[in-house]
Design a protein that fits this description.
By secondary structure, the protein is of the alpha/beta class. The chain has 6 helices and 7 strands, in the order αβαβαβαββαβαβ. A 3-stranded parallel β-sheet has the order 2-1-3, with helices on both faces.
């Protein structure tokens, strides 16, 4: 797991929960609603983000959030299915959780579209391109969204460049790619562009399992 990224995510998530509590404190202090754990829904892209969930749980525990006591985590995993992620996102929003934590650009963009016109707080993580979310300044995202980003697209390109340095005489690379994966279009475009820049032929093999 990317621990620096997870640490920032945990503090952002905890901060949003704290602000949420302060904003509703006067009402909840005399309501049974204040006794229930805060409900946090986490939407993954695939199994790749499972370690992120564990990191968030560990970080929240260190900050005093105990799962089952003052916080409840609900994790939904479409396992790379781009259609299923839309369905899961709609189901999450329908439950009206206290906070939504989508992972990846695709999951966050889907949640944003479904929560349009609503005030549900969103803390995103593992977003590789925040411009796709309509955010021009990540330091001041505005609206009901905030979070942290990573340069995942650039990393994909860099990996190919390193491979070319290790195998300078290579003229053709092979790549397995799942057309049902949430990031399929982005990954394909990045690898094709990098291959062209490096002067190599890229052969993609599609897999579904």
């Amino acid at each position: 797991p990317n621990f620096p990224l997870l640490l920032v995510t945990v503090f952002v998530l905890a901060g949003v929960l704290a602000l949420f509590q302060l904003a509703k404190g006067s009402k909840e202090s005399i309501s049974p609603e204040s006794q229930r754990p805060k409900r946090v829904a986490i939407l993954l892209s695939s199994d790749v983000q499972l370690s992120t969930v564990e990191g968030i749980k560990t970080g929240l525990a260190a900050l005093g959030y105990s799962e089952g006591k003052n916080i409840t985590l609900v994790v939904r995993n479409p396992k790379g299915d781009r259609e299923l992620i839309k369905k899961m996102a709609a189901e999450i929003v329908a439950t009206n959780p206290d906070l939504i934590v989508p992972t990846s650009t695709t999951a966050t963009k889907t949640i944003k579209e479904i929560t349009k016109g609503k005030s549900l707080p969103i803390v995103f993580v593992d977003v590789g391109n925040f411009n796709e979310l309509g955010i021009t300044n990540i330091k001041r995202p505005g609206g009901n969204m905030t979070g942290v980003v990573k340069e995942d697209t650039q990393a994909s390109s860099k990996r190919m460049e390193i491979l070319k340095e290790v195998l300078p005489k290579a003229k053709k690379f092979g790549m397995f790619i799942n057309p049902m994966h949430v990031s399929y279009d982005e990954l394909r475009a990045v690898h094709e562009e990098t291959a062209k820049k490096l002067g190599i032929e890229l052969q993609m093999y599609t897999i579904t399992e």
